[in-house]
Amino acid sequence: MPDPSISPSNAGGLSIRSTRVTDFEQITTLSNLPLYRAGTLRLPYQSLEHTRKWLESHGSGTLSIVAEIDGQIVGVAGLQRLEGRRLHAADLGIGVHDQFTGQGIGKALLGALIDAADNWLNIRRIELTVFADNAPAIRLYEKFGFETEGLLKAYAFRDGRFADAFAMARVRGI
Fold first, then answer.
1. Which three-class secondary structure state does DSSP give residue 162?
2. What is the pTM of this model?
C-alpha cells in the first residue's frame, strides 16, 4: 500500500502523472536550469528535439512521471527496468525545478516511483547515482531506505572539475 505521508495531495496542489511526448518543451526548460542540470549528467543547452526523442524512446521497461503545479512541470522522475538476469532491478533518476526544491516535490515523485516498483512492477532493487555534494538528495534517498554502496571517484566532469558520486540502492526484502 502507498504511504499516505507521501501523497501528492500533501504537497499543495501538486499532481503526479505519466510523461507525455507533448511535455518536451517544459521538460527541456527544466533540464536547462542550472541547479537541475548540475545534479544530472545532462549537458548544457539541451534542445527541444533531443528531449522529444528521449520521450519518444521510452519503451515498456520505462516508467516516467512528472510533477505539476497549476499545469507547470516542476519535477521529472523515472525508473528504467534492467534486463535479463537483472530484471528485478531498475535505475532511478529524478530532478526538481530550481525554484521548487525543498517543497516536497522530490519526496512525492520518489514515493510514487517506489510505490510502483514495490506494488506494481515487483522491482526488488532500485539503483541510483547521486553527486557526493548533493546532501539534500542523499538525505531524501536515505529516508526512503537507500543505502550508499560505494564512492565513485571523479565520476563526472561538472562545472570545470571532476565530481565524485555515490552509488546508492534500495533493496526490498533483505
1. strand
2. 0.88
